Amino acid sequence: MAGLSDETRRLLAQASTATLTTQLFKRGLRNSFMQAVRRLTPDAPVMVGEAYTLRMIPAREDLDHPGMFGGRDYPQRRAIEECPAGAVLVIDCRGKAAAGALGDILIARLMGRGVAGVVSDGAMRDTPQIVPLAFPVYAQGAAAPASFGLHHAVDLEVPVGCGEVPVFPGDVLVGDAEGVVVIPRHLADEVARDAAEQEKLEAWILAKVKAGQSIFGLYPPDDDARRRYESSRNDHGG
After folding, report:
1. Cα gap 238→109, rounded to integer Å
2. Cα(80)–Cα(77) distance, rounded to whole angstroms?
3. Integer angstrom CA distances of residue 38 from 33, 67, 165, 186, 214
4. Taking CA atoms, which of 40, 150, 209, 211 is between 20 and 30 Å from 67?
5. How far is Cα 5 from Cα 28, in angstroms, rounded to an integer?
6. What is the CA radius of gyration of the chain?
7. Strand partners, 90
8. What does the pLDDT read at residue 219?
9. Which parts of the chain have pLDDT scores under 70?
10. Are residues 65 and 117 located together in one domain of the fold?
11. pTM, full prediction
12. How many domains is the chain built from?
């Protein structure tokens, strides 16, 4: 499929992950929000991008050691140099967080190449240097040991599991302060559009609730509430 349009990216960046999970639930997708994955960089912008995946398996002592990073073929190193600008690097660490999937130098390289963010269901190392960055980094938490003590990178651009959610190459990831949601690529445009409409409706509902109105008939809106909402939109030019 063609890459995400600027309009879809804009709409997704304005929608909360809560709204996006609701839209996916309406389409029959219940497992879309990554578990135990949180944003490590509180000053980062909302993350929107297509998945570029890296799969890890358990480390093996005869293969995994610091010297393996010197070659150009190790998938973890390739991912840093090959993940496209505007994409999100998604690292399947099998939910294991006793070693860092990446550190500050590799994160800096991804930033410099214009990658949209990094998501792992493992940990990151060098977090004192990573936390202040205005760059989306999501993981379980922090771990000082290097990746080779726990992980062996084996595949790029294959389906993976991350945070108990299936992620296929090209799926769209959106991350905010609450976490990360995965949207199948073929649904991204319509989910973005409908999420924008939901956000507008819920903003109107919230204003009514703050003004003292009961939630009954309002949340969810009944026919009368929807008529009042549409009238309000028309009064304000849509």
Report:
1. 43
2. 5
3. 11, 31, 14, 26, 34
4. 40
5. 24
6. 20
7. 53, 119
8. 96
9. 1-2, 236-238
10. yes
11. 0.94
12. 2
105 & 173 share domain = yes
| Pair of tokens at residue 122 | 């493992």
49 and 119 part of one domain = yes
Provide the pairing of β-strand 172-176 with 47-58: antiparallel
Question: In terms of residue numbers, what domain contains 210?
Answer: 191-235
Phi, psi angle pair for 56, to nearest 5°: -110, 150
Q: Give the span between the Cα atoms of 196 and 191, in whole angstroms.
A: 8
**85 and 160, same domain (yes or no):** yes
pLDDT per residue over 71-113, tens digit each? 789 999 999 999 999 999 999 999 999 999 999 999 999 999 9
Closest CA to 143 of 175, 97, 105: 97
Q: How far apart are CA 165 and CA 150, in angstroms?
A: 21
56 plus 119 within the same structural domain: yes
227 with 112, same domain? no
Question: CA nearest 183: which of 36, 22, 44, 38?
Answer: 22
How many angstroms separate the CA atoms of 224 and 68, rounded?
66
Residues paired with residue 33 on neighbouring β-strands, in sequence order: 181
